[in-house]
Sequence to fold (112 residues):
Amino acid sequence: MPKIVFLPHAELCPKGAALDANTGETVLDVALKNGIAIEHACEKSCACTTCHVIVREGFFSLNESDELEDDMLDKAWGLEPESRLGCQARIADEDLVVEIPKYTVNMVSEGH
Fold:
């Protein structure tokens, strides 16, 4: 069973977290079911960038991004080569280390 380590984020998980994940789950779904309230304004439909994460370790084990995700990522704040949308990044069998960016393009939190 792969693990996801979420690096500390001042608001969403100040101490960080090490979570068990199932192959095929998305990074966002694992975070949400474990109380890490990553924004997801479009309800996981790949229509916004609020669930943008940076995969610090294990990036190449994830499913490949498609053209729609790549187009959306171009609009993300703080885009890096290892950026993914949490709602689209499906976990394989490798452990991940994930950073949640400090800011999103949302002016106001959706409060999910």
Notes: The mean pLDDT is 93. The longest strand covers residues 52-57. Residues 27 and 52 are 10 Å apart (CA to CA).
